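Suppose a colleague, Dr. K., hands you the sequence of a protein chain of 415 amino acids and asks what its three-dimensional shape might be. Before reaching for any lab equipment, you can write down a predicted structure in token form. Begin with the sequence itself:
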Amino acid sequence: MTEESTRPREIVLGVSGGIAAYKACEVLRRLREAGHHVQVVATRAALEFIGAATFEALSGRPVLTGVFENVAEVEHVALGRRADLVVLAPATADLLSRMTHGRADDLLTSTLLTARCPVLAVPAMHTEMWEHPATVDNVATLRRRGTVVLEPASGRLTGADSGPGRLPEPAEIAEFARLLLEWGLTDDQPFPLPRDLEGRRVVVSAGGTAEPLDPVRTLGNRSSGRQGYALARVAAQRGADVTLVAGTIADLDPPAAVDVRRVQTTREMREAVLDAAKAADVVVMAAAVADFRPTDLATAKIKKGDGEPTSVPLTRNPDILRDLVAQDVPGRLVVGFAAETGDEHSSVLDLGRAKLERKGCDLLVVNAVGAGRAFEMEDNEGWLLGADGTSEPLPMGSKAALSARVWDAVAQRLR
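The predicted structure, expressed as tokens, is then:
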């Protein structure tokens, strides 16, 4: 990453009046911890849910609300000009409606009319409001104008109600904020969140797998699942219908608008992926599966001391990527991942090219691993190799940014 990509940015955090406003405090904390300057602009309804003192303590700045505050500075113009990014969390049905119609009846909507930076709107409302034709039309209009409107999560709403309309978790909102800030640094790359996967069915695998040795111990691979989760998040926000098959992962919240299926072993992952892949347009095997499993499973915990095993016989696990390619589904794209370390004979890239030819997939993401790279890290880099001979470097950046580049290549091939 360049020095420019890590410098503090000016972010306007717009908070509107919904019960999910309490999550804006955590979004604010994460943006501040990333080193950014954050100005909270709240509607008066938002301050009925969260007091100004909370936002001011977390941001280190006064909360702004009305257009008649600090009139001499013409705040709505100054804020719009300074901002590198506007994040609206939560974005209520009312706010989305006022944005669509170009209203300027408070400081937040007035600022939105002057802002020329990316705007990330994160909706939160009851399911009936989210699915109402008026909201559907408003969201479509805002997206057509260039506003990034995230798909909401599904889950518990107010009271006993549950369904789509829940605000995504703050970590996910912060991840998309970082993605938009990274993308805003250059003008020579496509937008990271176009709606170019609408109508497409996508399957992504993530995390590691664990093969039981006895009731206590397992054999497995190091993988936090962050890259697979980022791939699923970005695909869902580009319009895809996403199924995420997750093995052993870090403590990660389910991505918004994604169907998550949990597995443990490589054989369980194979069954789940091949089943979901039958109706898929794209399958991305980002999981770091265990290539081997113990030949015998002990029924009781293996004790240290007399009789302890001196070796553990292993059996090769099925090759999920090769089995996906062997299905030979017309028009379906298969994307593999290769975690390589290189050796005295071959570089990481050489080994990746050999794996691409051996596996027969359409695209292969090659990562150099070890020494604090790739596994269990926030950032990632590598190369994207194509069966057509193409090779594209994936520069160091967030795992969401790498995901966006992968989906760019996929979308181009689907077209």
